[in-house]
TrEMBL record:
Record keyword Ubl conjugation present: no
Sorted UniProt keywords: GTP-binding, Hydrolase, Lipoprotein, Magnesium, Membrane, Metal-binding, Methylation, Nucleotide-binding, Prenylation
Signal peptide range: none
Record-stated family: Belongs to the small GTPase superfamily. Rheb family.
Protein name in UniProt: Uncharacterized protein
Species whose genome carries this gene: Acyrthosiphon pisum (Pea aphid)
NCBIfam families: small_GTP (TIGR00231)
UniProt catalytic activity: GTP + H2O = GDP + phosphate + H(+)
Length: 184
């Protein structure tokens, strides 16, 4: 018997211009837009299936944050996708500040988080190594992925992994197995 549709809300956070909107649009609409249009706040909705469970996924694409930003408050967020660009050291610095603020804001010691190093297609401009990203995610006990919204690499994995992390947080069960794009 098919299980009931579950509703899940995910916030996508990170420094300006790291590709939060591009990842959302790639996942929801299957396209990449090369122009840059700063986001105020946008919500995307998509139904998707993971491990035989149907989800209605609401993606809250937030306005880019910096070290001085007050994080947007939503009380019904199930998980957080934290994005930096592998070509921007500043965005990697900021993601750590955002993480600290998130823990402060929610009062939780552990949140379902997927850390994403986006723009992995920009090989020549890489300044944040895979190792640095993985280490940071390990320190948070979060999942780490590198992705490219431009080349649609590992984009669906981000959101599917996020849903699995939320499931795990809600009812700890044995790990369903590795995801192709996760780096551990
Ligand atoms: N090469 C490359 N460029 C990307 C990728 N993802 C996004 N971009 C580009 O980076 C710029 C910023 O992308 P956005 O998706 O608007 O970034 P954002 O994080 O939503 O930006 P804010 O709304 O300011 O927070 C745009 O010019 C995109 O085309 C990627 O994977 N590879």
């Amino acid at each position: 018997m098919p299980s009931k549709l579950k509703e899940r809300k995910i916030a996508i956070m990170g420094y300006r211009s790291v590709g939060k909107s591009s990842l959302s649009i790639q996942f929801v609409e299957g396209q990449f837009v090369d122009s840059y249009d700063p986001t105020i706040e946008n919500t995307f909705v998509k139904t998707t299936k993971v491990s035989n469970q149907e989800y209605e996924l609401k993606l809250v694409d937030t306005a880019g944050q910096d070290e001085y930003s007050i994080l947007p408050t939503h009380y019904d967020i199930h998980g957080y996708v934290l994005v930096y660009s592998i070509a921007s050291p500043k965005s990697f610095e900021i993601i750590q500040i955002i993480y600290d603020k998130l823990l402060d804001m929610t009062g939780n010691v552990h949140l379902p988080i997927v850390l994403v190093g986006n723009k992995k297609d920009l090989h020549m401009d890489r300044v944040v190594t895979q190792e640095e990203g993985r280490k940071l995610a390990d320190s948070w006990k979060a999942v780490f992925l590198e992705a490219s919204a431009k080349q649609n690499e590992c984009v669906a994995d981000i959101f599917h992994t996020m849903l699995m992390e939320i499931e795990k947080a809600n009812n700890p069960v044995p790990n369903p197995g590795p995801v192709t794009c996760s780096i551990s």
